[in-house]
Amino acid sequence: MGLSECNVMVVEDHDFQRRTTVRFLKDLGVKSVLEAANGRKAVNILTGRGRPLDIIFCDLDMPEMDGVEFIRHVAEEQLSQAVVVVSAMESSILHAVETMAKAYGLQLLGVIPKPLDSQKLASCISKFQPKEIIRKQSAARDEFTVEDLRHGLKEGEFIAYFQPKVSFATGEMKGVEALVRWFRPGHGMVPPAQFIPEMEHEGLVAHLTEVLLTQTCGYLKAWALMGHVVTASVNVSMLCLTDVGIADRLHDLVKESDCDPRQIILEVTETEVMTDVAKVLNVLARLRLKGFGLSIDDFGTGYSSLQQLSNVPFTELKVDQSFVKDSPTQPRHRTIIEASLGLAHKLKLKTVAEGVETRAEWDLLKSMGCQTAQGYFVARPMPGHQMPAWIQMWQAPEAACL
Protein backbone atom coordinates (compact mmCIF):
# COMPACT_ATOMS: atom_id res chain seq x y z
CA MET A 1 0.00 0.00 0.00
CA GLY A 2 1.34 3.43 -0.96
CA LEU A 3 1.46 6.31 1.50
CA SER A 4 -1.14 8.22 -0.52
CA GLU A 5 -3.63 5.39 0.06
CA CYS A 6 -3.20 5.21 3.85
CA ASN A 7 -6.04 6.38 6.07
CA VAL A 8 -4.43 7.85 9.18
CA MET A 9 -5.43 9.58 12.40
CA VAL A 10 -3.31 11.65 14.79
CA VAL A 11 -4.53 11.66 18.41
CA GLU A 12 -2.64 14.30 20.39
CA ASP A 13 -3.85 16.88 22.93
CA HIS A 14 -1.03 19.35 22.29
CA ASP A 15 -2.11 21.50 19.32
CA PHE A 16 1.38 22.29 18.06
CA GLN A 17 2.53 18.66 18.30
CA ARG A 18 -0.62 17.47 16.52
CA ARG A 19 -0.28 20.00 13.71
CA THR A 20 3.42 19.16 13.32
CA THR A 21 2.69 15.43 13.05
CA VAL A 22 -0.06 16.05 10.49
CA ARG A 23 2.30 18.23 8.44
CA PHE A 24 5.02 15.59 8.51
CA LEU A 25 2.55 12.94 7.34
CA LYS A 26 1.26 15.08 4.48
CA ASP A 27 4.82 15.94 3.44
CA LEU A 28 5.43 12.18 3.23
CA GLY A 29 2.48 11.86 0.84
CA VAL A 30 -0.32 10.75 3.17
CA LYS A 31 -3.49 12.40 1.84
CA SER A 32 -6.12 11.33 4.36
CA VAL A 33 -5.27 12.46 7.94
CA LEU A 34 -7.91 12.76 10.66
CA GLU A 35 -7.24 14.61 13.92
CA ALA A 36 -8.45 14.31 17.52
CA ALA A 37 -7.34 16.07 20.70
CA ASN A 38 -7.80 13.03 22.96
CA GLY A 39 -8.87 9.41 22.99
CA ARG A 40 -12.54 10.06 23.72
CA LYS A 41 -12.92 12.43 20.78
CA ALA A 42 -11.09 9.96 18.55
CA VAL A 43 -13.43 7.12 19.55
CA ASN A 44 -16.46 9.32 18.84
CA ILE A 45 -15.11 10.15 15.37
CA LEU A 46 -14.22 6.55 14.51
CA THR A 47 -17.22 4.70 15.98
CA GLY A 48 -19.66 3.84 13.24
CA ARG A 49 -17.21 4.83 10.53
CA GLY A 50 -17.81 1.50 8.81
CA ARG A 51 -14.23 0.37 8.25
CA PRO A 52 -11.10 0.58 10.39
CA LEU A 53 -8.37 3.10 9.78
CA ASP A 54 -5.01 1.89 8.59
CA ILE A 55 -2.81 3.59 11.20
CA ILE A 56 -3.38 5.68 14.32
CA PHE A 57 -0.59 7.80 15.79
CA CYS A 58 -1.42 8.50 19.42
CA ASP A 59 0.03 10.15 22.50
CA LEU A 60 -0.35 8.52 25.94
CA ASP A 61 -0.75 11.40 28.39
CA MET A 62 -4.05 13.00 27.32
CA PRO A 63 -7.12 14.40 29.14
CA GLU A 64 -10.57 12.71 29.28
CA MET A 65 -9.25 9.41 27.88
CA ASP A 66 -5.55 8.63 28.00
CA GLY A 67 -3.69 6.76 25.28
CA VAL A 68 -3.57 3.45 27.14
CA GLU A 69 -7.36 3.32 27.50
CA PHE A 70 -7.73 4.54 23.92
CA ILE A 71 -5.58 1.68 22.58
CA ARG A 72 -7.86 -0.78 24.39
CA HIS A 73 -10.89 0.73 22.63
CA VAL A 74 -9.08 0.63 19.29
CA ALA A 75 -8.35 -3.07 19.72
CA GLU A 76 -11.71 -4.19 21.11
CA GLU A 77 -13.79 -2.15 18.65
CA GLN A 78 -11.42 -2.73 15.71
CA LEU A 79 -11.09 0.97 14.99
CA SER A 80 -7.69 0.65 13.31
CA GLN A 81 -5.43 -2.02 11.88
CA ALA A 82 -2.25 -0.57 13.40
CA VAL A 83 -1.01 1.95 15.93
CA VAL A 84 2.11 4.01 16.51
CA VAL A 85 2.72 5.36 20.01
CA VAL A 86 4.26 8.84 20.12
CA SER A 87 5.11 9.89 23.65
CA ALA A 88 7.66 11.53 25.93
CA MET A 89 6.81 9.16 28.80
CA GLU A 90 9.57 7.13 30.48
CA SER A 91 10.83 4.01 28.73
CA SER A 92 9.32 1.57 31.26
CA ILE A 93 5.80 2.87 30.51
CA LEU A 94 6.42 2.82 26.75
CA HIS A 95 7.62 -0.77 26.96
CA ALA A 96 4.55 -1.80 28.97
CA VAL A 97 2.24 -0.17 26.40
CA GLU A 98 4.11 -1.84 23.57
CA THR A 99 3.63 -5.25 25.18
CA MET A 100 -0.05 -4.49 25.88
CA ALA A 101 -0.78 -3.47 22.27
CA LYS A 102 0.74 -6.67 20.94
CA ALA A 103 -1.22 -8.72 23.48
CA TYR A 104 -4.43 -7.11 22.15
CA GLY A 105 -3.46 -8.31 18.69
CA LEU A 106 -2.77 -4.90 17.22
CA GLN A 107 -0.04 -4.25 14.72
CA LEU A 108 2.31 -2.04 16.71
CA LEU A 109 4.47 -0.30 14.15
CA GLY A 110 6.67 1.51 16.63
CA VAL A 111 7.06 3.50 19.82
CA ILE A 112 8.47 6.94 18.98
CA PRO A 113 9.81 9.17 21.76
CA LYS A 114 9.20 12.89 21.39
CA PRO A 115 10.28 15.02 19.66
CA LEU A 116 9.42 13.11 16.50
CA ASP A 117 10.60 13.70 12.96
CA SER A 118 9.47 12.69 9.48
CA GLN A 119 12.13 9.98 9.17
CA LYS A 120 10.81 8.17 12.25
CA LEU A 121 7.25 8.46 10.95
CA ALA A 122 8.24 7.10 7.54
CA SER A 123 10.08 4.18 9.15
CA CYS A 124 6.98 3.19 11.14
CA ILE A 125 4.61 3.52 8.18
CA SER A 126 6.90 1.32 6.06
CA LYS A 127 6.22 -1.59 8.46
CA PHE A 128 2.47 -1.49 7.92
CA GLN A 129 0.82 -4.52 6.35
CA PRO A 130 -2.90 -4.39 5.51
CA LYS A 131 -4.91 -7.24 7.00
CA GLU A 132 -5.76 -8.63 3.57
CA ILE A 133 -2.03 -9.12 2.92
CA ILE A 134 -1.56 -10.77 6.32
CA ARG A 135 -4.53 -13.05 5.58
CA LYS A 136 -3.04 -13.99 2.22
CA GLN A 137 0.28 -14.77 3.89
CA SER A 138 -1.51 -16.87 6.47
CA ALA A 139 -3.51 -18.68 3.80
CA ALA A 140 -0.28 -19.37 1.93
CA ARG A 141 0.97 -21.41 4.86
CA ASP A 142 1.08 -25.11 4.29
CA GLU A 143 -2.03 -26.97 5.28
CA PHE A 144 -1.39 -30.47 6.58
CA THR A 145 -3.17 -33.26 8.40
CA VAL A 146 -2.16 -35.44 11.32
CA GLU A 147 -1.45 -38.19 8.80
CA ASP A 148 0.97 -35.87 7.01
CA LEU A 149 2.85 -35.42 10.28
CA ARG A 150 2.89 -39.17 10.96
CA HIS A 151 4.07 -39.83 7.41
CA GLY A 152 6.80 -37.20 7.78
CA LEU A 153 8.07 -38.82 10.97
CA LYS A 154 8.08 -42.24 9.35
CA GLU A 155 9.81 -41.09 6.16
CA GLY A 156 12.52 -38.99 7.80
CA GLU A 157 11.24 -35.61 6.63
CA PHE A 158 12.07 -33.94 9.97
CA ILE A 159 15.71 -32.87 9.97
CA ALA A 160 17.93 -31.51 12.75
CA TYR A 161 19.63 -28.17 12.13
CA PHE A 162 22.25 -26.89 14.55
CA GLN A 163 23.06 -23.42 15.89
CA PRO A 164 26.51 -23.01 17.48
CA LYS A 165 27.02 -21.83 21.07
CA VAL A 166 30.40 -20.21 21.69
CA SER A 167 32.35 -19.03 24.70
CA PHE A 168 32.36 -15.26 25.27
CA ALA A 169 35.79 -15.59 26.92
CA THR A 170 37.64 -17.61 24.28
CA GLY A 171 35.39 -17.61 21.20
CA GLU A 172 35.62 -21.41 21.14
CA MET A 173 32.54 -23.39 20.17
CA LYS A 174 31.26 -25.18 23.25
CA GLY A 175 28.07 -26.70 21.94
CA VAL A 176 25.09 -26.52 19.62
CA GLU A 177 21.34 -26.32 19.91
CA ALA A 178 19.41 -28.79 17.79
CA LEU A 179 16.48 -27.16 15.97
CA VAL A 180 14.03 -29.17 13.91
CA ARG A 181 13.01 -28.38 10.33
CA TRP A 182 10.33 -30.16 8.29
CA PHE A 183 11.32 -30.64 4.66
CA ARG A 184 8.00 -31.68 3.18
CA PRO A 185 8.20 -32.96 -0.42
CA GLY A 186 6.45 -30.58 -2.78
CA HIS A 187 6.14 -27.90 -0.10
CA GLY A 188 9.71 -26.99 0.82
CA MET A 189 10.75 -26.21 4.39
CA VAL A 190 7.91 -25.83 6.90
CA PRO A 191 8.98 -23.79 9.97
CA PRO A 192 8.54 -25.26 13.48
CA ALA A 193 6.00 -22.64 14.56
CA GLN A 194 3.56 -24.14 12.07
CA PHE A 195 3.82 -27.80 13.07
CA ILE A 196 5.04 -28.03 16.69
CA PRO A 197 1.71 -26.91 18.27
CA GLU A 198 -0.16 -29.49 16.17
CA MET A 199 2.30 -32.20 17.16
CA GLU A 200 1.83 -31.35 20.82
CA HIS A 201 -1.95 -31.41 20.40
CA GLU A 202 -1.87 -34.81 18.65
CA GLY A 203 0.59 -36.45 21.05
CA LEU A 204 3.40 -36.73 18.48
CA VAL A 205 5.94 -34.39 20.08
CA ALA A 206 7.65 -37.16 22.12
CA HIS A 207 8.28 -39.11 18.89
CA LEU A 208 9.67 -35.96 17.29
CA THR A 209 12.00 -35.41 20.28
CA GLU A 210 13.36 -38.94 19.92
CA VAL A 211 13.91 -38.46 16.18
CA LEU A 212 15.75 -35.20 16.83
CA LEU A 213 17.85 -36.71 19.62
CA THR A 214 18.85 -39.69 17.46
CA GLN A 215 20.05 -37.41 14.65
CA THR A 216 21.87 -35.20 17.15
CA CYS A 217 23.75 -38.14 18.66
CA GLY A 218 24.79 -39.25 15.18
CA TYR A 219 26.35 -35.86 14.48
CA LEU A 220 28.00 -35.66 17.90
CA LYS A 221 29.81 -38.91 17.10
CA ALA A 222 30.80 -37.74 13.61
CA TRP A 223 32.10 -34.40 14.89
CA ALA A 224 34.05 -36.12 17.70
CA LEU A 225 35.88 -38.23 15.11
CA MET A 226 36.99 -34.93 13.52
CA GLY A 227 38.24 -33.65 16.88
CA HIS A 228 35.22 -31.51 17.79
CA VAL A 229 33.85 -32.75 21.12
CA VAL A 230 30.88 -30.57 22.10
CA THR A 231 27.56 -30.71 23.91
CA ALA A 232 24.16 -30.50 22.22
CA SER A 233 20.94 -28.97 23.52
CA VAL A 234 17.60 -30.50 22.57
CA ASN A 235 14.25 -28.92 23.43
CA VAL A 236 11.80 -31.02 25.42
CA SER A 237 8.13 -30.13 25.68
CA MET A 238 6.64 -30.02 29.14
CA LEU A 239 4.02 -32.42 27.77
CA CYS A 240 6.73 -35.09 27.38
CA LEU A 241 7.83 -34.69 30.98
CA THR A 242 4.54 -35.98 32.39
CA ASP A 243 5.43 -39.42 30.95
CA VAL A 244 7.36 -41.19 33.73
CA GLY A 245 8.91 -43.59 31.20
CA ILE A 246 10.60 -40.94 29.08
CA ALA A 247 13.76 -40.71 31.21
CA ASP A 248 14.57 -44.37 30.54
CA ARG A 249 13.70 -44.10 26.85
CA LEU A 250 15.92 -41.07 26.27
CA HIS A 251 18.79 -42.62 28.23
CA ASP A 252 18.53 -45.88 26.27
CA LEU A 253 18.36 -43.98 22.97
CA VAL A 254 21.54 -42.01 23.74
CA LYS A 255 23.45 -45.09 24.93
CA GLU A 256 22.36 -47.10 21.86
CA SER A 257 23.69 -44.25 19.73
CA ASP A 258 27.05 -44.71 21.48
CA CYS A 259 26.91 -41.25 23.06
CA ASP A 260 27.26 -40.05 26.63
CA PRO A 261 24.16 -38.48 28.26
CA ARG A 262 26.53 -35.87 29.73
CA GLN A 263 26.88 -34.48 26.20
CA ILE A 264 23.12 -33.78 26.04
CA ILE A 265 21.40 -30.76 27.59
CA LEU A 266 17.62 -30.94 27.64
CA GLU A 267 16.06 -27.48 27.37
CA VAL A 268 12.81 -27.03 29.24
CA THR A 269 10.83 -23.96 28.21
CA GLU A 270 9.53 -22.38 31.39
CA THR A 271 6.72 -20.51 29.62
CA GLU A 272 4.74 -23.75 29.83
CA VAL A 273 2.76 -24.35 33.01
CA MET A 274 3.90 -27.35 35.03
CA THR A 275 0.51 -29.07 35.29
CA ASP A 276 1.56 -32.33 36.98
CA VAL A 277 4.32 -31.23 39.33
CA ALA A 278 5.02 -34.60 40.95
CA LYS A 279 5.49 -36.46 37.64
CA VAL A 280 7.52 -33.68 36.03
CA LEU A 281 9.89 -33.42 39.00
CA ASN A 282 10.22 -37.23 39.02
CA VAL A 283 11.26 -37.23 35.36
CA LEU A 284 13.62 -34.26 35.63
CA ALA A 285 15.37 -35.65 38.70
CA ARG A 286 15.85 -39.03 37.02
CA LEU A 287 17.20 -37.38 33.85
CA ARG A 288 19.82 -35.59 35.98
CA LEU A 289 20.69 -38.86 37.72
CA LYS A 290 21.30 -40.40 34.31
CA GLY A 291 23.75 -37.62 33.41
CA PHE A 292 21.66 -35.29 31.23
CA GLY A 293 22.07 -31.55 31.69
CA LEU A 294 18.93 -29.47 32.21
CA SER A 295 18.53 -25.92 30.93
CA ILE A 296 15.76 -23.51 31.91
CA ASP A 297 14.95 -21.89 28.57
CA ASP A 298 13.41 -18.42 28.04
CA PHE A 299 14.19 -17.52 31.65
CA GLY A 300 12.12 -14.66 33.02
CA THR A 301 9.30 -14.83 30.48
CA GLY A 302 7.07 -17.52 31.94
CA TYR A 303 5.50 -18.93 35.06
CA SER A 304 7.04 -19.14 38.53
CA SER A 305 10.64 -18.74 37.33
CA LEU A 306 12.14 -18.62 40.81
CA GLN A 307 10.02 -21.50 42.05
CA GLN A 308 11.16 -23.68 39.16
CA LEU A 309 14.79 -22.76 39.81
CA SER A 310 14.28 -23.79 43.42
CA ASN A 311 12.54 -27.09 42.67
CA VAL A 312 14.24 -28.37 39.51
CA PRO A 313 17.91 -29.52 39.36
CA PHE A 314 18.82 -27.24 36.45
CA THR A 315 22.43 -27.00 35.31
CA GLU A 316 22.06 -24.07 32.88
CA LEU A 317 20.11 -20.84 32.57
CA LYS A 318 19.34 -19.28 29.19
CA VAL A 319 18.72 -15.54 29.16
CA ASP A 320 15.77 -14.99 26.85
CA GLN A 321 16.38 -13.16 23.58
CA SER A 322 13.63 -10.65 24.38
CA PHE A 323 15.95 -9.22 27.06
CA VAL A 324 19.11 -9.53 24.95
CA LYS A 325 17.55 -7.62 22.06
CA ASP A 326 18.45 -3.93 22.29
CA SER A 327 20.02 -4.48 25.72
CA PRO A 328 22.84 -1.98 24.98
CA THR A 329 20.23 0.80 24.75
CA GLN A 330 17.59 -0.51 27.18
CA PRO A 331 18.56 -0.01 30.85
CA ARG A 332 15.70 -2.20 32.11
CA HIS A 333 16.81 -5.08 29.89
CA ARG A 334 20.36 -4.73 31.21
CA THR A 335 19.12 -4.76 34.80
CA ILE A 336 17.11 -7.95 34.22
CA ILE A 337 20.07 -9.64 32.51
CA GLU A 338 22.42 -8.60 35.31
CA ALA A 339 20.03 -9.99 37.94
CA SER A 340 19.58 -13.24 36.01
CA LEU A 341 23.32 -13.75 35.60
CA GLY A 342 23.92 -12.96 39.27
CA LEU A 343 21.27 -15.48 40.31
CA ALA A 344 22.74 -18.14 38.00
CA HIS A 345 26.24 -17.53 39.39
CA LYS A 346 25.06 -17.96 42.98
CA LEU A 347 23.21 -21.14 42.04
CA LYS A 348 26.31 -22.41 40.17
CA LEU A 349 24.45 -22.62 36.85
CA LYS A 350 26.09 -22.17 33.46
CA THR A 351 24.76 -19.19 31.52
CA VAL A 352 23.79 -18.77 27.87
CA ALA A 353 22.51 -15.63 26.15
CA GLU A 354 20.31 -16.46 23.18
CA GLY A 355 19.45 -14.09 20.37
CA VAL A 356 22.81 -12.27 20.30
CA GLU A 357 22.60 -10.43 16.97
CA THR A 358 24.97 -7.46 17.17
CA ARG A 359 28.53 -6.66 18.23
CA ALA A 360 27.16 -4.26 20.85
CA GLU A 361 25.09 -7.07 22.41
CA TRP A 362 28.11 -9.40 22.30
CA ASP A 363 30.33 -6.83 24.05
CA LEU A 364 27.71 -6.05 26.70
CA LEU A 365 26.94 -9.68 27.57
CA LYS A 366 30.64 -10.48 27.69
CA SER A 367 31.32 -7.55 30.04
CA MET A 368 28.49 -8.74 32.30
CA GLY A 369 30.10 -12.15 32.74
CA CYS A 370 27.77 -14.30 30.63
CA GLN A 371 29.58 -17.49 29.63
CA THR A 372 28.08 -18.52 26.30
CA ALA A 373 26.62 -16.75 23.26
CA GLN A 374 24.07 -18.04 20.79
CA GLY A 375 22.48 -16.08 17.96
CA TYR A 376 22.80 -14.74 14.43
CA PHE A 377 25.89 -12.70 15.35
CA VAL A 378 27.65 -16.06 15.79
CA ALA A 379 25.83 -18.14 13.16
CA ARG A 380 22.43 -19.07 11.83
CA PRO A 381 21.19 -22.66 12.24
CA MET A 382 22.75 -25.01 9.67
CA PRO A 383 22.65 -28.67 8.62
CA GLY A 384 24.97 -30.90 10.65
CA HIS A 385 27.29 -31.65 7.75
CA GLN A 386 28.14 -27.95 7.43
CA MET A 387 29.26 -27.58 11.04
CA PRO A 388 32.93 -28.72 10.67
CA ALA A 389 33.54 -26.19 7.87
CA TRP A 390 31.92 -23.44 9.96
CA ILE A 391 34.18 -24.28 12.92
CA GLN A 392 37.23 -23.86 10.72
CA MET A 393 36.02 -20.47 9.43
CA TRP A 394 34.66 -19.02 12.69
CA GLN A 395 36.55 -16.19 14.32
CA ALA A 396 35.45 -14.51 17.50
CA PRO A 397 35.14 -10.69 17.21
CA GLU A 398 38.34 -10.02 19.16
CA ALA A 399 40.30 -12.56 17.10
CA ALA A 400 39.06 -11.04 13.87
CA CYS A 401 40.49 -7.67 14.89
CA LEU A 402 44.03 -9.00 15.43
Describe the structure.
The chain is of the alpha/beta class. It folds into two domains: 3-137, Rossmann fold (3-Layer(aba) Sandwich), CATH 3.40.50; 141-401, Alpha-Beta Barrel (TIM Barrel), CATH 3.20.20.450. Helices cover 43% and strands 22% of the residues. Helix 12 links the parallel strand 11 (293-299) and strand 12. Helix 10 (246-256) runs parallel beside helix 11. The longest helix is centred in the middle third of the chain and has 21 residues, at 205-225. The chain starts with 6 loop residues before the first strand and ends with a helix.
Mind sketching the topology for me?
Layout: E1 7-11, H1 15-27, E2 32-36, H2 39-46, E3 53-58, H3 67-76, E4 80-87, H4 91-103, E5 107-113, H5 118-125, H6 131-139, H7 146-154, E6 158-167, E7 173-184, E8 188-190, H8 192-201, H9 205-225, E9 231-236, H10 246-256, E10 264-269, H11 277-289, E11 293-299, H12 305-311, E12 316-319, H13 321-324, H14 331-346, E13 350-354, H15 359-367, E14 372-374, E15 382-383, H16 387-393, H17 397-401
Parallel strand pairs: 1-2, 1-3, 3-4, 4-5, 7-9, 9-10, 10-11, 11-12, 12-13, 13-14
Antiparallel strand pairs: 6-7, 6-14, 6-15, 7-8
Helix pairs in contact: 2-3, 9-10, 10-11
